[in-house]
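Database export, one record per block. Field names are fixed; values are copied verbatim from the stored entry.
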Amino acid sequence: MCLCQFMILLDTTIVNVALPSMQRELGIRPENLEWVVNAYVVTLTALLLTGGVLGDRYGRRRLLLVGLAVFTLASAACALSTDDPELILFRAVQGVGAALMAPLTLSALTDAYSPEEAPRAIGIWAGVSGLGFAAGPVVGGILVERFDWSAIFWVNVPIGAAAAALIVHGVRESRSPVARRLDVVGTLLVTVGLALLVLGVTGTNTHSWLGARTLGVLAAAAVALAAFVAWEARAPEPMLPLSLFARPGFSPAIVTTTLAYVSLAGILFFITLYFQDVRGLSPIQAGLAWLPLNVFFLASAPRAGPLARRFGAERVVVTGMAIAAVATIGLALAGANGYGAYWPWYLPLGLGYGLATPSIVAAAMRAIEPARSGVAAGAVNVARQLGSCVGLAVLGSVAVGVAVNTWSETVADLPPVSRPAAAALGQAVAGGQTSVVERALGPAAAGAAGHAFVDGMRAALWVAAGALVLGALTGGIGAARGHRTHAVAPEHAQAMSR
């Protein structure tokens, strides 16, 4: 299960460092380049709930193997692609396989381990899967520099084969004892709604938030998701029973997961961009720079389970989110400095996320009966993916706005003859492309562009810190509700559960 989840999250971030190579070798047009990333994210997010439902009904082990086969074969097809339409198509198919696997990796764990052992197993699972998310730039940089862009997809083939062998020999078949018929209407509505939501949010990279295209897509997403909620409320056999969100601890865990990944996605993106484009680190160096975070994440995640058993999962969540918020504030204050000003904050950031993310998952899964573990795990994974998409879009908008405003002040101080060319470079500045500015305007302007980018990055990091603080408060609400629930007499709690 750890191998499967590692691959899923690795492919969320590994592609970014290979995009320039793909663009050169395949001749990908700029408007299609973002779809090499988004095609995977859209299908993965849109079909996550469906994957959990299918596993609960037809067998989790069986659907895991189907999803793994689709994902692995699609990875090989991506590596063999000769143009951008092929690559984008097979990236979308990769997302389908990942959507079948992702919720079932967690529900298979909850089936395999006792309630006493499950938190530690979930902690290890969360640690390894989180490592996949953070290790994408490292692994991608090494593979692209040593081989070529196709290597980032070929690497999934041996991992997928090993995971399949382990599933065949080490995972027992399980399904929900109260499996229901597939909710076709609900499946279509939630798939369309989530796909449109992700399309609308990711499209803000090239379209304004208030533009007709963005507002239209988001409005359509809202209509589809509202229809999904209305249908699930009256469907005889809903794919996502709305009663799940009334369970103490489940809704706070979903909200906290979303906020945690809103912040993490933005932190990884902007700081990697800063060190690679502004400070001039190579892809390998920029990726390896995150090792202190990964080490502390891996060290703390397996210990989150025992701490959750002793103090309560929600309390561990609050502590972890608060530590991560302090670390993010430290990163925001580091400013336009070198690696020495940043890496000490990676340690508490890794510690905070290592404590929080497994405990959030444990709190969510504890609130739901095992028969619905696939659906619950699907909801947790949807929250994770939506948090990453929304985080990059929202924090990106904040960063771009601040960077462009700072650059505009620089442009105003330039000689009149240079102002039109400088003004046209606003988006390049917001993206950290100081080399483009240097070629057009000289080294002094490149330095000013770097400072403008840092201003935007710092603003985004402050917003990320605010999201973590809000997540800590949400986790505190979950802790209060959990305390009240545990105070109820056992027979009363059993009746409430029924």
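Remark 1: The chain has two domains: 1-180, 240-498.
Remark 2: The two ends are 30 Å apart (CA to CA).
End of record.
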